[in-house]
Design a protein that fits this description.
Order of helices and strands of chain B: HHHHHHHHHHHHHHHHHHH
Strand content of chain B: under 5%
Shape of chain A: globular
Radius of gyration of chain A: 17 Å
Order of helices and strands of chain A: EHEEEEHE
Distance between the termini of chain A: 16 Å
Number of helices of chain A: 2
Structural class of chain B: mainly alpha
Distance between the termini of chain B: 67 Å
Strand content of chain A: 35-45%
Strand order of the largest sheet of chain A: 2-5-1-6
Largest interface: A-B, 12 and 10 residues
Largest sheet of chain B: none
Number of helices of chain B: 19
Oligomer: heterodimer
Helix content of chain B: over 70%
Low-confidence stretches of chain A: none
Largest sheet of chain A: 4 strands, antiparallel
Low-confidence stretches of chain B: 90-94
Chain lengths: ~120, ~400
């Protein structure tokens, strides 16, 4: 089994759904989460606060430097993600097909590195 | 046993390397290991065969030799791989070299190379390299990109297959139609790359067209129930059959109506038309089958334009694109005259598409609208980078002065 990151990306200036439309997305995502758990593919998932809530931490010798804001100033940002387990890419892509419908946005599928053999 | 010259070995490489690589990928789970081992096996063949002659079953010899080389290599490399080797030798499939197991391997490999998670240009490159046995410089030459670029493209695609775990298997039935489409598209792209290559690359041209036909044949043998695969093979054969008549002694394009039909490959036309009839009997039409049927009609004398027009109407349902509509308009002009055809052409918006201007130019010429025709020929010539087509358009534009 391989773990895959299914990440949801937002673009600056994108109009976020409100009210009933947003509630439908929450409901659909929760239903999908339940389906992933039942299938035994669940590792972790969550939605993120906006990037302006981020803090970047850097080591500078003995000191630790903090910077307000996201690491990369870009028009795109990570909105949330799933980590799932799947037998192969086709299985991961099938989950992503459901995820993109549930969260109403494009989903990037990226494999985690295999754990080094013992 | 006769002595094997180098080009006989080269032929075996073309024919058999895809089979051997496909089987080794299944056994070792790694494209790189498979490629390297098959390469090694051919190096041994080059040393031995010229003196010893070809073995009875050259393909089987290559696969067995490559497998042994891969096992030796893995055994030498580390204890971790030693376990792989042992596990693999216990695998009962290891000894399964029946024809059907080998065919399954090639089918798996086609679907892996043409996986929709890979970029289209990577699918084409991988298919030519792994199934077609073409070397990276040959593929780079065929697609007019630097060798380093093509090499990077192949490395990246292979890395993605391994890291993202693109599966090595034939898709399940309900995914098959969707997954077969990119496979057919890749073979069609390979054929077209050969077909439109300029006359300077005559060798590349023939090689790629033949390779696409060979792979389409493989697909038809492996998936005899897929009507669109039959349609693709028929289409490629019928287009390829007319290749020798397509240009004149000066290398200018010769239109279908003016072609010397004695130059057509009668055998390929007969095979293509027989395949089209097989498709018709199945009655599961699709875009490649309809295009094959159009080309089958074009291979008869004289062309039945009513039938061509009806087939384009059908094709438009599957592929409602302006390019198909343009071809339909050409057929319409033959049935209802150039004025009606021109009206249909002018309803389309294809300003950057050379055949759009070339078609307009021809219809205007036939209507005696010389000045407008000349402007349209100029627009078409402006968009042409193929020498044969340019010469043809210049000849036609030049002949307008006589009117």
């Amino acid at each position: 089994m391989t773990q895959y990151l299914l990440s949801v990306h937002h673009t600056e200036g994108e109009v976020m759904p409100e009210g009933a439309a947003m509630q439908k997305i929450y409901d659909d995502v929760e239903a999908l989460n339940e389906e992933i758990r039942k299938a035994g593919a669940w590792v972790f998932a969550g939605g993120l606060e906006l990037p302006d809530t981020a803090t970047v931490v850097r080591a500078d010798g003995d000191e630790t430097l903090l910077t307000d804001g996201p690491f990369a100033e870009s028009k795109e940002h990570l909105g949330g993600f799933w980590v799932i387990e799947a037998a192969d890419l086709d299985a991961a892509l099938a989950w992503a097909g459901k995820a993109t419908r549930a969260c109403a946005g494009p989903v990037e599928v990226r494999p985690f590195q295999a754990e080094p053999d013992a | 046993m006769s002595v094997a010259p180098d080009d006989a070995i080269e032929l075996v490489f073309r024919e058999e390397s895809g089979r051997a690589i496909a089987t080794l990928i299944r056994l070792f789970g790694s494209i790189d290991v498979a490629e390297e081992a098959v390469q090694d096996a051919f190096l041994i063949a080059i040393q031995r065969w010229p003196a010893d002659g070809l073995p009875l079953n050259p393909g089987g010899w290559i696969t067995t030799t490559a497998r042994n080389r891969a096992i030796d290599r893995l055994r030498r490399e580390s204890s971790r791989d030693e376990r792989h080797v042992q596990a693999m030798q216990l695998d009962p499939r290891d000894n399964d070299e029946s024809a059907s197991a080998v065919d399954d391997d090639r089918l798996r490999l086609i679907f892996t190379c043409c996986h929709p998670a890979l970029a289209p240009e990577a699918r084409v490159a991988l298919t030519l390299r792994l199934l077609g046995g073409l070397r990276t410089p040959e593929i780079a030459g065929a697609f007019l990109v630097p060798e380093a670029t093509m090499s990077k493209r192949l490395v990246r695609a292979k890395r993605k297959i391994a890291a993202a775990r693109i599966p090595y298997r034939v898709p399940v039935d309900h995914d098959l139609p969707e997954r077969l489409r990119p496979v057919l598209a890749v073979l069609y792209l390979i054929f077209n790359a050969g077909y439109v290559a300029s006359e300077g690359d005559a060798l590349v041209r023939t090689d790629l067209c033949e390779e696409a036909i060979r792979l389409a044949r493989v697909l038809v043998v492996l998936m005899p129930d897929e009507a669109e695969a039959l349609g693709l093979l028929a289409l490629l054969l019928l287009i390829d059959a007319r290749g020798p008549a397509r240009t004149d002694a000066d290398g200018a394009i010769v239109l279908l109506a003016d072609q010397d039909r004695s130059l057509w490959d009668a055998e390929k036309i007969a095979e293509g038309q027989a395949l089209v009839r097989r498709c018709l009997r199945r009655n599961h039409p699709g875009p490649f089958q309809i295009q094959a049927a159009i080309n089958a009609v074009h291979s008869d004398t004289p062309t039945d334009w009513h039938q061509v027009l009806a087939l384009y109407d059908q094709l438009l349902i599957f592929s409602p694109t302006p390019v198909v509509a343009l071809n339909r308009a050409i057929a319409l002009a033959e049935v209802d005259g150039p004025e009606v055809g021109l009206e249909a052409v002018d309803a389309l918006v294809l300003p950057a598409y050379q055949p759009f201007h070339a078609t307009r130019a021809d219809l205007l010429r036939r209507l005696g609208r010389v000045d407008e025709a000349r402007v349209a020929y100029d627009a078409a010539i402006e968009l042409t980078d193929n020498g044969s087509e340019r010469r043809f358009l210049e000849q036609r534009s030049g002949s307008l002065r006589a009117n």
